[in-house]
Write a structure and sequence with these properties.
Chain A: It comes from Actinomadura alba. The complex is a heterodimer. Chain A is an all-alpha fold. Chain A contains 16 helices and no strands. In chain A, helix 2 runs antiparallel to helix 3, helix 6 runs parallel beside helix 9 and helix 6 packs across helix 12. Chain B has 2 domains: about 170 residues, Periplasmic binding protein-like II (D-Maltodextrin-Binding Protein, domain 2, 3-Layer(aba) Sandwich); about 200 residues, Periplasmic binding protein-like II (D-Maltodextrin-Binding Protein, domain 2), CATH 3.40.190.10. Chain B is built from 19 helices and 12 strands. Classes of the chains: A mainly alpha, B alpha/beta.
Chain lengths: ~290, ~425
């Protein structure tokens, strides 16, 4: 979130160079304020992550730290075996992102290009599935995974999220593919391309920017998921980063400094991932247009 | 539709693969763990008294049971709360775990048949001799899952109770005497108000406000009243003398400035942090703060006293050791519980600011920790533990928070608040 906020002021600045419109200054100021507001919680988390518990007790949550206290970060890392959690999260989010994109493309090909019968209803159904709260899904999924013997495995979470994410992906991609330039498809068919070839040689390359955006989003969304991993990943060895963060909230006490340290460790990977794929994301937004 | 078919085929393939995978895993698990491994879960932080003491218990267990490994996993409180029924109903249940006491938690699981009835083990190993009557209440449940029953479904090895924490430096600076009677208590609060200091810390958004109210009601109550309220032994009237006194006095204290009006949205964590920062003269809260105050407060002297002139106060056993019905190593689980009940672990609890159920006072090193245990001894001796106000019915905690917030805001008179509590209580009673 902070990355988009930091990014957006660039646009108006370019414009001001061209024509010095007072209103664009206003926009710039407004965006800077907005960025500051959005970055503030992050700053507080960083502050508290670097404080000793005693400092936190004496000076409160908002005061800047007196020095760099990295013990909280280190303690948390060791306490929950964070490296392992990181690996679990990467495995789960990565597989989900790839699987869900593949599923979405296949579904959307049928719905958007193939224009099968009743596609509207299928889309409505998928949209409804998207609005279902996860709390409603948890029990049925729990029984299912227990029956299949995959309760408390990373695989169960991968399957569940690949399906959930692809519901959204199908919905989005179907409308993108619905507007796919027909002449391209017809030309391919004239050249004797089969359905598979049309999909892999024409559609996937042309929509690649959109697919990359979906990939990044699926990865980040899955990374941040809490409830289903909490319920399905019972063993500490299988847990993800977001579940591991919950360990610090006791019944009546919470360790504010260590929680901040853990939150910092928890968001850093997504932030890094986001920054790496930032260009993909901005490019993906213009993917609808014909080249 | 052929693409959807593909998707389904993919899923089916994945599931089949996973079945093979988990089948291996499962096979491994059962053959490897029988008698060789004790799977233990709890959710206490590693630096808390319980965390320290139980870690020692694990070492002791491993040295007295050569060849057996303890596979300990630290869990989050929320994870256990949300998933315990599901975990215990699967083959992945641990052999022994910490679980919350109370009707809605341990009681519910015992009713569902997910916990082992430990009654014979408790009497055989003499654990019942170590625990006072009001500590036992939360470990025993009846067929309906109501506490105070006849069967032991859990064993507590520590306890908790509420006390008034006070900032000695603030008392000295403002020439206020530490109260021993209720009259002196209110006089002390008046003195602070006169100096412009709010005497009592409070977190209106969480459990603290209702605990003040309940404590005030308890000063006019007896054991039968508590049993009626907590264990449904008699019909509860929220307009009786005790509840009315509790609610009106609480509202009165806000009016007098003993409790700050702006504490209405404060979280318990922040109220505790305010006490740690030295701004609050007194905080009425539980022994769960003790260890943290001891380690985090360096800038001033603090001490505690029990709520003056009351026969009953809030408190109960700590969380319970429970043995899931699906435990594969019940014998080892009992052995582990037994170690935590022994003097060695109990003394470690005591020395780390915990409230043990059976410690040796003589070996407790710091005078503060000693006082913590002596006070608990007093409470158990007079059968004074009256549990917590949110226990009896599901969802009562949130009702209580909302109603006490009304009292703090002054948006509803005590009479109406008690009426609303009555409604929530009556509709939530188990049939």
């Amino acid at each position: 979130m902070s990355a988009t906020a930091a990014q957006s002021p660039i646009k108006p600045r370019v414009r001001t160079r061209r024509r010095r419109d007072p209103s664009s200054h206003m926009v710039l100021v407004a965006l800077i304020v907005l960025a500051a507001v959005m970055l503030l919680p992050f700053v507080i988390v960083v502050f508290n992550a670097l404080k000793t518990p005693q400092e936190y007790g004496a000076n409160g949550a908002l005061a800047p730290p007196e020095g760099f206290y990295l013990q909280g970060l280190k303690d948390f890392w060791e306490r929950v075996d964070f490296g392992r959690k990181l690996l679990n999260s990467i495995i789960i989010s990565g597989s989900v992102a790839v699987l869900a994109v593949i599923l979405s493309v296949l579904n959307a090909y049928a719905l958007g290009i193939g224009r099968i019968k009743g596609r509207l209803w299928i889309l409505v159904l998928l949209l409804m599935a998207n609005t279902l709260p996860q709390e409603a899904l948890v029990y049925p999924l729990y029984y299912l995974s227990k029956q299949l013997g995959i309760y408390d495995t990373r695989l169960s979470v991968i399957i569940v999220f690949a399906v959930i994410q692809s519901a959204f992906g199908t919905y989005l991609l179907s409308s993108v593919l619905g507007a796919f330039p027909r002449p391209l498809l017809e030309a391919a068919r004239m050249d004797g391309a089969s359905k598979w070839q049309v999909l892999w040689r024409i559609i996937v390359p042309v929509t690649r920017p959109t697919l990359s955006v979906l990939l990044v989003f699926f990865f980040i969304w899955t990374w941040n998921e809490f409830l289903i991993p909490l319920v399905f990943l019972i063993s500490n060895d299988n847990q993800t980063v977001s579940v591991a963060l919950g360990v610090l909230h006791g019944q009546r006490l919470m360790d504010a400094t260590m929680s901040s340290a853990s939150a910092l460790l928890g968001i850093l990977p997504t932030l890094i991932f986001f920054l790496i794929f930032q260009r993909t994301l901005t490019r993906g937004l213009t993917a609808g247009s014909i080249k | 539709m052929f693409k959807r078919g593909k998707g389904a085929a993919l899923l089916a393939a994945l599931t089949a693969g996973s079945l093979a995978l988990s089948a291996c895993g499962g096979g491994d698990d059962t053959s490897g763990s029988a008698g060789k491994e004790l799977r233990l879960w709890h959710y206490e932080g590693p630096t808390s008294a319980m965390g320290v003491a139980w870690k020692q218990a694990i070492q002791e267990f491993e040295s007295t049971h050569p060849g057996v490994k303890v596979k300990f996993e630290e869990k989050g409180f929320e994870q256990i709360q949300k998933t315990a029924p599901m975990v215990l109903n699967s083959k992945d249940a641990p052999d022994v775990m910490e679980y919350n006491k109370g009707n809605a938690t341990a009681g519910l699981l015992s009713k569902q048949g997910l916990l082992t009835d430990m009654t014979s083990e408790v009497t055989k190993r003499g654990w019942d001799k170590l625990l006072g009557p009001s500590v036992q209440t939360t470990a025993k449940y009846d067929a309906k899952g109501v506490m105070g029953g006849d069967k032991w479904f859990g064993v507590p090895n520590y306890a908790e109770y509420l006390m008034v924490y006070y900032n000695k430096d603030l008392f000295d600076e403002n020439d206020v005497k530490v109260p021993t009677t209720f009259a002196e208590f209110t006089a002390a609060m008046d003195a602070f108000v006169k100096k412009g200091i709010t005497p009592l810390g409070n977190g209106g958004a969480e459990y603290m406000a209702q605990q003040y109210l309940y404590q005030l009601a308890l000063t006019k109550a007896d054991r039968a009243w508590v049993d009626g309220f907590e264990r449904y032994t008699s019909k509860v009237d929220f307009h009786d003398a005790a509840w009315t006194y509790g609610a009106t006095t609480f509202a009165d204290w806000v009016k007098k400035g003993y409790i700050a009006k702006n504490s209405v949205g404060v979280k318990a964590e922040d109220a505790g942090a305010a006490f740690i920062s030295g701004k609050v003269p007194m905080l009425f809260s539980g022994s769960w703060w003790y260890g943290r105050f001891a380690s985090d407060i360096k800038a001033f002297e603090w001490d505690t006293f029990l709520w003056p002139e009351t026969k009953l106060t809030l408190g109960s056993s700590g969380n319970l050791w429970v043995v899931p019905q699906g435990s594969k190593n019940k014998r080892l689980a009992y052995d582990f519980i037994d170690i935590t009940m022994k003097k060695g672990i109990q003394n470690t609890l005591a020395n780390n600011g915990g409230v043990p159920v059976a410690a040796d006072e003589a070996v407790v090193n710091s005078p503060k920790n000693k006082q913590l245990i002596q006070n608990f001894g007093t409470l158990v001796g007079t059968d004074a533990l009256a549990f917590y106000p949110d226990w009896p019915v599901a969802g009562f905690y949130d009702t209580f928070v909302a109603q006490t917030q009304k009292l703090i805001n002054g948006s509803a008179p005590p009479d109406r608040v008690l009426g609303d509590l009555q409604k929530a209580y009556d509709s939530g009673l188990p049939k």
